[in-house]
């Protein structure tokens, strides 16, 4: 800890604000996150042992970004993979790249590292040419050295132990793609070996000297306030517990023994008196209720004129879904020497620091937020909340590291869910079966309440004596309308969106509104294909101009060429381009429907994510997306009573278990000359529609309201005792 | 209410002074500082906390440490021999069978248990053996491939 931090080191060099020393136009030319942080050494440092350390403001969540970034750096510098070390999001070391979200890490962070590494390469060559007094063409990079016949110098010798503090300046010569050794290949993720060896890797594995455990007592509903708590009785019951922290209606309990702390949490939950919160609209027709509280429609897209006589109309509904991380959220916080350090699996360390600064009235430079791997989160789950709670507890216990582990119930009942959505679609076909008019009206809550520097979105902030309460707005935003415009050539188009403030806490869940929008659009496309008497492939291709989109669908068609038609089974397809600007994705699903049971037998995905960085990484994300989306689509729905969500464990909120997992087959189209596009979320929406379409093929029943299967898994599988 | 208790974990006997009602998981993670078994639900619903009790995969999050004091307890740390990985661990690396990896402990420990009982397990037997373990990342297809790689 005596080493200077990167920040103080940079400060000494006087280049902390190098971003501002560039003329604006030059910075704007820079790709990805270099725009904001153009200094080479913000992204890359040369180590004395010949290795290179790369910094990213993103965090590894199982999506493999760490390896993709290392590949990009290693490729440009001709280094073996194990000579590249990656430092993830950390407010004292990494560049500020706000959130790890929206499948944008490759497009922003990895690209920044690629250019920074290429610029470093140019610098090494230039220095070596001077020092060896030779021409740059004579020089070669090898294993951290620049070589010229029988002379060689390591990167750090060339720099004489310094770092490259200059900004990246365009143009930067990138390595020719044809000579790639690493990028585009399937590269193993080194952390998988750590995982199978049970080495410490997750925030849950952090153990500090003197660390104590913590839990938070939860009120019975969102708006409840603490009325009374019998502290004397509590003390009598739990004499060993360190400290009961009560701040307004926020009640935290800490102690050295984790089991005892969990017992105390339970005791508190049973003994605290809370006021009743606002009742939830249980038992009401949710669709009618949500529509009734929505704001007026805002136009998203308007093109041409819609004539009044639609050929076909349909309404689709997507329920509230949860992230459902397998490891409930966790954080460790330590306040000592007037500085607060937090270890978190938050997707945004800088915005979290900013929000904590306002929550705790602590200057940002006295808060150090360090990103550590967590259980997969697929969006904004309880990570930021638990970090804020641990911070409040740590501040109340100066000098003692506090580890706060959410319970399963905390995570299931208090995480911000993915919003319910309603879609009403109408279309008119011409006599040739082409779509002439298309209208889509949608209703949704917001899809992001990330803290973004504001404390009111941190759960505990809402329970303090002087609570920070989130502003309710009826303004339509981009998350809800993501993918609401079909990627098809349609002359007359009208998309309208309404925002409601629903009864449940919501935020970003993998693909945001894209999942619901694509489910609706691609189900509707299937219905229209039938009206037009066209094959689902043909109908989509008739309306697709973009060659890459067509190629993705045609590849899927080829894969299905020899698929047999079996009784009580059906195959459905769907297509979307994520955000209409990112990865292309075509999906097929084969399902079997026997009476009321549905089985997903197989799913296929064809993905065009532009230039491939880590082939196996894309496949892994896509396979996972297929299975996760199938689980959402077939089984999942957050339910609530008048007080609270009642889906509070894995029996009341069942997700796919091993016996339900379909076979998955993923094809990635190689587009080395195209920009790399994030692929982590592209599957979610089309997979849902492919399943609904397959269900229709198998059963002749069109399901427009998810989940497809409303049966109670709870009854089939009983908890083992 | 603390008592002294001997616990045999990964071949080593530990003497511990603790509340005998403590769930085994907390003892393994906190007292013995093991990372293999993980907290996922504390309700025996997700399998993140799997260990082998006398060779059979069982969740460790609800069972009191007192109940298992006479059993052989094996965690993920205990299935490799020194630096040599268990074939299943190697297969998970070879198949890159992980996304976030949080569920990996449960998957691996259950697979060890299944293959010990049925070395030539078929697809259905493997799935049944892993049914108690949840994975939210959707990596199950890879887990199945990895396990089958060992059987082949
Ligand atoms: S943590 Fe034990 S089964 Fe979930
Ligand atoms: S790999 Fe993330 S839960 Fe299974």
Q: What can you tell me about this protein's structure?
A:
The complex is a heterodimer of chains A (721) and B (152). With 721 residues, chain A is of the alpha+beta class. Chain A has 20 helices and 24 strands. Chain A folds into three domains: 6-175, 2-Layer Sandwich (Aldehyde Oxidoreductase, domain 4), CATH 3.30.365; 208-276 and 324-414, Aldehyde oxidase/xanthine dehydrogenase, molybdopterin binding domain (Aldehyde Oxidoreductase, domain 4, 2-Layer Sandwich); 421-447 and 482-711, Aldehyde oxidase/xanthine dehydrogenase, molybdopterin binding domain (Aldehyde Oxidoreductase, domain 4). In chain A, 30% of the residues lie in helices and 20% in strands. In chain A, helix 11 (349-360) crosses helix 12 (383-396), helix 15 packs parallel to helix 19 (684-699) and helix 18 (615-635) crosses helix 19. Chain A is globular, with a radius of gyration of 27 Å. Mean pLDDT of chain A is 92; it is low at 1-24 and 711-721. With 152 residues, chain B is α+β, with helices and mostly antiparallel strands. Chain B has two domains: 3-78, Beta-grasp domain (Ubiquitin-like (UB roll)), CATH 3.10.20.30; 87-151, DNA polymerase, domain 1, CATH 1.10.150.120. Chain B contains five helices and five strands, in the order E-E-H-E-E-E-H-H-H-H. Chain B has helices at residues 24-31, 87-94, 104-117, 123-130, 140-151; strands at residues 3-9, 12-18, 50-53, 56-59, 72-74. Chain B has a five-stranded mixed sheet, covered by helices on one side. In chain B, helix 2 (87-94) packs across helix 5 and helix 3 (104-117) crosses helix 4. The longest helix of chain B has 14 residues, at 104-117. Classes of the chains: A alpha+beta (721), B alpha+beta (152). The interface between A and B is large, with 66 and 55 residues. The complex binds FE2/S2 (inorganic) cluster (FES) (2 copies). One FE2/S2 (inorganic) cluster sits between chains B (98-103, 135-137, 139) and A (62, 326, 376).
């Amino acid at each position: 800890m005596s080493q200077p931090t990167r920040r103080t080191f940079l400060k000494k060099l006087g280049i902390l604000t190098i971003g501002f020393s560039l003329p604006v136009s030059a910075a704007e030319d820079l790709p990805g996150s270099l725009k904001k942080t153009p200094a080479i050494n913000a992204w890359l440092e040369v180590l004395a042992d010949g290795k290179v350390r790369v910094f990213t403001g993103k965090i590894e969540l199982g999506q493999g970004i760490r390896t993709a970034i290392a590949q990009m750096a290693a490729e440009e510098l001709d280094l073996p993979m194990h000579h590249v070390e990656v430092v993830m999001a950390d407010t004292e070391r990494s560049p500020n790249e706000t959130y790890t979200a929206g499948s944008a890490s490759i497009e922003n962070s990895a690209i920044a590292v690629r250019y920074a590494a290429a610029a470093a390469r140019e610098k090494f060559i230039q220095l070596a040419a001077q020092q060896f007094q030779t021409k740059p063409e004579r020089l070669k990079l090898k294993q951290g050295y620049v070589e010229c016949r029988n002379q060689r110098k390591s990167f750090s010798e060339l720099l004489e132990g310094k770092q490259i503090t200059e900004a990246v300046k365009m143009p930067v010569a990138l390595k020719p793609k044809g000579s790639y050794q690493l990028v585009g290949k399937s590269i193993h993720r080194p952390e998988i070996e750590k995982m199978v060896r049970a080495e410490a890797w997750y925030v849950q594995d952090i153990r500090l000297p003197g660390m104590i455990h913590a839990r938070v007592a939860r009120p019975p509903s969102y708006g409840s306030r603490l009325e009374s708590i019998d502290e004397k009785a509590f003390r009598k019951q739990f004499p060993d517990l360190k400290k009961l922290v009560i701040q307004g209606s926020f009640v935290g309990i800490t102690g050295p023994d984790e089991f005892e702390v969990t017992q105390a949490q339970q005791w508190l939950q049973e003994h605290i008196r809370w006021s009743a919160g606002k009742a939830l609209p249980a038992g009401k027709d949710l669709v009618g209720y949500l529509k009734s509280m929505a704001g007026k429609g805002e136009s998203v897209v308007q093109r041409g004129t819609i004539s009044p006589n639609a050929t076909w109309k349909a309404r689709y509904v997507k329920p509230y879904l949860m992230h459902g991380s397998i490891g409930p959220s966790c954080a460790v916080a330590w306040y000592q020497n007037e500085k607060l350090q937090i270890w978190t699996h938050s997707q945004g360390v800088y915005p979290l620091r900013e929000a904590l600064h306002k929550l705790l009235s602590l200057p940002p430079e006295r808060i150090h937020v360090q990103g550590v791997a967590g259980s997969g989160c697929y969006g904004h789950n309880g990570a930021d909340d638990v970090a804020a709670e641990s911070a409040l507890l740590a501040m109340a216990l100066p000098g003692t590291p506090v580890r706060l582990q959410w319970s399963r119930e905390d995570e299931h009942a208090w995480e911000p869910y993915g919003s319910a959505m309603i879609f009403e679609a109408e279309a008119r076909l011409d006599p040739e079966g082409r779509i002439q008019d298309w209208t889509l009206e949608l209703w949704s809550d917001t899809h992001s309440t990330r803290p973004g520097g504001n404390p009111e979105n941190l759960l505990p902030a809402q329970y303090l004596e002087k609570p920070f309460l989130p502003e309710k707005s009826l303004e339509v935003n981009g998350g809800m309308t993501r993918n609401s415009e079909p990627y098809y050539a349609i002359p007359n188009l009208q998309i309208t969106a309404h925002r409601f403030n629903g009864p449940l806490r919501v935020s970003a869940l993998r693909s945001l509104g894209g999942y619901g929008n694509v489910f609706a659009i691609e189900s509707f496309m299937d219905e229209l294909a039938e009206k037009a008497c066209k094959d689902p492939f043909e109908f989509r291709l008739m309306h697709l101009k973009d060659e890459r989109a067509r190629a993705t669908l045609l590849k899927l068609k080829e894969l299905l060429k020899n698929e047999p038609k079996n009784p009580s089974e059906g195959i459905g397809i769907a297509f979307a381009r994520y955000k209409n600007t990112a990865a292309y994705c075509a999906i097929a699903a084969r399902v079997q429907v026997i009476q009321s049971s549905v089985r997903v037998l197989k799913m296929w995905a064809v993905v065009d994510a532009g230039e491939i960085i880590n082939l196996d990484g894309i496949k892994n994300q896509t396979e996972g997306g297929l299975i996760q989306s199938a689980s959402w689509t077939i089984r999942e729905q957050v339910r609530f009573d008048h007080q609270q969500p009642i889906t509070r464990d894995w029996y009341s909120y069942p997700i796919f278990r091993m016996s339900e997992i379909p076979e998955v087959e993923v094809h990635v189209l190689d587009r080395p000359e195209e920009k790399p596009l994030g692929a982590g979320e592209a599957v979610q929406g089309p997979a849902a529609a492919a399943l609904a379409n397959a269900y229709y093929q198998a059963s002749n029943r069109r399901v427009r309201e998810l989940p497809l299967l409303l049966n109670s898994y709870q009854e089939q599988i009983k908890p083992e005792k | 209410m603390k008592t002294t208790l001997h616990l045999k974990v990964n071949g080593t006997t530990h003497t511990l002074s603790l509340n005998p009602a403590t769930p085994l998981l907390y003892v393994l993670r906190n007292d013995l500082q093991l990372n293999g078994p993980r907290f996922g639900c504390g309700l025996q619903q997700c399998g993140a906390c799997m260990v082998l009790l006398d060779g059979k995969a069982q969740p460790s999050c609800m069972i009191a440490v007192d109940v298992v004091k006479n059993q052989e307890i094996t965690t993920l740390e205990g299935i490799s021999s020194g630096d040599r990985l268990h074939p299943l661990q190697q297969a998970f690396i070879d198949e890159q069978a992980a996304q976030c990896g949080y569920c990996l402990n449960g998957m691996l420990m259950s697979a060890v248990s299944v293959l010990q009982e049925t070395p030539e397990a078929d697809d259905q037997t493997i799935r049944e053996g892993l049914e108690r373990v949840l994975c939210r990342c959707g990596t199950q297809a890879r887990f199945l491939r990895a396990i089958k790689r060992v059987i082949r």
